[in-house]
Design a protein that fits this description.
Two copies of one chain form a homodimer. The first copy, chain A, is an all-alpha fold. Helix content of chain A is 82%, strand content 0%. The first copy, chain A, has one domain: Up-down Bundle (Chorismate Mutase Domain, subunit A), CATH 1.20.59. Chain A contains three helices and no strands. Chains A and B meet through helix 1, helix 2 and helix 3 of A and helix 1, helix 2 and helix 3 of B.
Chain lengths: 112, 112
């Protein structure tokens, strides 16, 4: 095999591992969003605010520590969490809006 | 327990699961970036382009299918992959720049 063929064979092998990891990531994210969906429903039902800055600070600090232990860039770990949390907060706000609309159409808070 | 206490106990339980999932995600991301670091080094050594649009399209289509099977939002799965790939391409470009600098300081391509 040429040097070029070797490089492509190696690239293909790395990509197979990346694809396996991505499948695991998607399935874990699916589970994570199931949890945050339940959190969103709970918060909406009990009129808790969608965002929780103190909890987010704890999560950031913990993930940065875990990243360092795993020899992973803590800055990117924090960016990753922020990316996920933005999506979660969007979902929670949408849930809260649905709850509010349901209350209004039920006549319990018709004035808004 | 009051209804409010129940809600907080439930929230705490959901958060414990989210924290476990996040630890798994960070460790998987650490492995993924190890793989893409190797890909970056290989690409830089063989002068392959950092981005590969055809590969990315295949990855997007596959992750969307996996997301649907996992009852997960395929739009978010795609956004997630784009977010990761942007970081990977940034890393590959940085590696390529290092290679180029090394070549230059080695006198093999002094004119740039």
């Amino acid at each position: 095999m040429s040097d070029h063929d070797d490089a492509w064979a190696q690239l293909t092998a790395y990509r197979a591992s990346i694809d396996n990891i991505d499948a695991a990531l998607v399935h874990l994210l699916a589970e994570r969003f199931k949890c945050t969906q339940l959190v969103g429903e709970l918060k909406a039902a009990h009129n808790m605010p969608p965002a929780d800055p103190a909890r987010e600070q704890q999560q950031i600090a913990r993930l940065r520590r875990l990243a360092v232990d795993a020899k992973f860039d803590p800055v990117f770990a924090e960016k990753f969490l922020s990316f996920i949390v933005r999506e979660v907060v969007r979902n929670h706000e949408a849930l809260r809006d649905v709850e509010t609309t349901e209350l209004r159409t039920g006549g319990e808070d018709a004035a808004g």
